[in-house]
Amino acid sequence: MSLSPVARAALHATQKRLQVQMRLGEEYGRLREEASRIRQHAVDRLPDLLQTFRRRLRKAGVPLIYAQTPGDVQDVLRAIVERHAIRRLVKSKSMVSEEAGVRPFLEGLGLDVWESDFGEFLVQLRGEVPGHLVAPAIHLTRYDAAETLSRFFGEHLPPEPEALMERTRTFFQKVFADADAGMVGANFLLAEEGGLVAVENEGNLLRTLYTPRVRIVLTTPEKLLPDRDALPPLLRLLALHATGQYFPNYVHLHPLGHDGVPTYVILLDHGRSRIWRSEFRAILRCIRCGACSSVCPVFRAGGGNRIYRSPYGGAMGKVLNPLLWGRSHADLPDRSLLCGFCDASCPVRIPLTSMIRALRTAHPELAMLWQMFPRGKGWRTLSSRIYRIRTAPPPGNSPGDGDGEARDQPAPKAPYPSSWEARWLQLLTEQATEIREDSPPPDARFVAAVGEAGVLVASPHVLNTDRDVLRVQGPHPFYPTLKSFLEAWDGQEPRVLFGGPSRTADIEKVLVLGAHGPRKVTFWLTSSSESPP
Ligand code: SF4
Q1: Which residue out of 14, 286, 305 has the highest number of ligand 1 atoms within 8 Å of its CB and is therefore the one to mutate?
Q2: Which of 56, 65, 322, 338 could staple 194 via S-S, CB 3.0–4.6 A?
Q3: If you take atom 2 of ligand 1, which residue's CA is the nearest one?
Q4: Residues lining ligand 1, CB < 6 A?
Q5: CB 512 within 8 A of CB 519
Q6: How far does residue 293's CA lie from ligand 1's centre (Å)?
Q7: Do the beta carbons of residue 265 and residue 64 sit within 8 Å?
Q8: Which of 38, 281, 292 to mutate to test ligand 1, by most ligand atoms within 8 A of the CB atom?
Q9: Backbone φ, ψ for residue 272 (5° rounding)
Q10: Rounded distance from Cα 158 to ligand 1 centre (Å)
Q11: Helix (H) or strand (E) holding 18
Q12: Choice from 188, 241, 336 to test ligand 1 binding pocket (greatest atom count within 8 A of CB)
């Protein structure tokens, strides 16, 4: 028996996450407690944070547009397109833009619109909806990807992730060179700093933010945080729960309006202010990691997000979709086994199962269906058994057999070093950054570093280049923790925290170099600096 691409990828992401959780030991529990508290506090203060954010953006000369509906977003975009004579727009992955129907709308206006995230690009070419919050092409095999790209490029491409990525890289160099506008989403917004925080692995978001002549940020109000102090546990848990990484490959700290590039921030409400006033407020804590999709037996068996008729799948989709779209999605809470895996996997402790139950009661037709099924312990046991049957490798499947799910199971690793410096060096090496101790070449740029995150820190222009090899030296200065780095950051200049070369695992979870950004990062460990990064 072989698993579907969705089930295999979801299992792989969950296994990777659990492995890192084990290596973190008690540190993980502390991060989760802190992250839940921070998100609940931010959501409770949302009206205040929105006022502060609005004031900051006004000072920076950045228009903030609050759109009530997807139709309002489209009206605003039409005005921006006309004002700046935009013909080509490049996007980074954004589920809010899917929610607002942005790409079909802009294409209808005659624009050339490209999704720059590799998985999202495949989904665009196939005319599908993303299969997962953080892995849009989760439902595709390498053969699907090769067939799709061969058709698009009009040439035969082999079903090899590396070859497919190489071909896509060449295509996007031209797309970015000609793009008038870049559209990005946000993982978080910093009210006090008027800042955008966005994470990624491929480097396409970096190019989307810093290459075109007009910048559009489309997101939702609940992404607001009071200030940068809230970031450390959230950044660490977002990467871990999304892809099983210790830390994202790139984290962008971007003060909105800092560089004079015309910038627009659009916040889509679409019923979120109503949700804020309801008993379902806690769903606004969601940081879109997708862990509750990856562990969900219905999501795995149903082949990804397609069954949710929305970009939001898994347990959070069963809660959020009916609240956003109402009756047309009122059946989704019923598509749950109430097994509780989602509650256990959520980094910000959203009580998803209780909310699904409450939504069934809220909709009479769902309540009726719910009466037909047994409740309580017996139901829980049954659902757990279904989960095991659908996800466990077949009996007798030894390492190396079958189609790889047993072979792919990560081996246990030693806990992370408790010294931040030792952990930093270990993580950089694990992220494929070459570390050297000989004399750096004259063109090696100076970078800082953050021990806790296992990353280097630079200005975006150091990274936003077509160069294949990035040569850097440092760390000057070395910040032991994320907190110490964020306290020292002036909040005025953008910074990128990065761990290694561009990469992606969009096709069958095979980790390869991504279609954007440097293919290699070489870092010279030096003892003194001549200039700060
Ligand atoms: S509900 Fe929790 S687990 Fe699901 S996507 Fe949101 S933060 Fe992640």
Answers
A1: 286
A2: 56
A3: 346
A4: 241, 286-292, 315-316, 345-348, 350, 352
A5: no
A6: 8
A7: yes
A8: 292
A9: -70, -30
A10: 36
A11: helix 5-24
A12: 241
pLDDT in tens, the chain (533 residues): 678 888 888 888 899 999 999 999 999 999 999 999 999 999 999 999 999 999 999 999 999 999 999 999 999 999 999 999 999 999 998 999 999 999 999 999 999 999 999 999 999 999 998 988 888 998 999 999 999 999 999 999 999 988 999 899 999 999 999 999 999 999 999 999 999 999 999 999 999 999 999 999 999 999 999 999 999 999 999 999 999 999 999 999 999 999 999 999 999 999 999 999 999 999 999 999 999 999 999 998 887 777 888 999 999 999 999 999 998 999 999 989 999 999 999 999 999 999 999 998 876 554 444 344 333 333 333 333 333 333 333 333 333 333 334 344 556 678 999 999 999 999 999 888 899 999 999 999 999 999 999 999 999 999 887 778 899 999 999 999 999 999 999 999 999 999 988 888 777 777 777 788 888 999 999 986 555 54
- C-alpha 115 to ligand 1 mean position (Å): 24
For residue 482, report the distance from its CA to the centre of ligand 1, in Å: 23
The angle that helices 118-126 and 161-178 make with each other, rounded to 10 degrees, is: 90
| Atom of ligand 1 lying closest to residue 315 CA | 4
CB 190 within 8 A of CB 239: no
Tokens of 290: 């997708």
Structure-block tokens of residue 502: 């561009």
> Among 348, 349, 353, 356, which residue has the most ligand 1 atoms within 8 Å of its CB, making it the best to mutate?
348
Buried b (16+ CB within 10 A) or exposed e, 2-41: ebbbbbbbbbbbbebbebbbeebeeebeebbebbbebbbe
Distance CA 357, CA 355 (A): 5
Q: Which amino acid is at 271?
A: G
Nearest-CA residue for ligand 1 atom 3 is 346
- Residue matched to tokens 């200039």: 531
How far, in Å, from the CA of 346 to the mean position of ligand 1? 5
Q: How far is CA 36 from CA 156, 185, 341, in A?
A: 49, 22, 17
- Residue carrying the six token digits 């489209």: 74
Strands 195-200 and 250-255: antiparallel
Question: Ligand 1 centre and the CA of 181: distance in Å?
Answer: 30
Residue nearest to atom 6 of ligand 1 (CA): 286
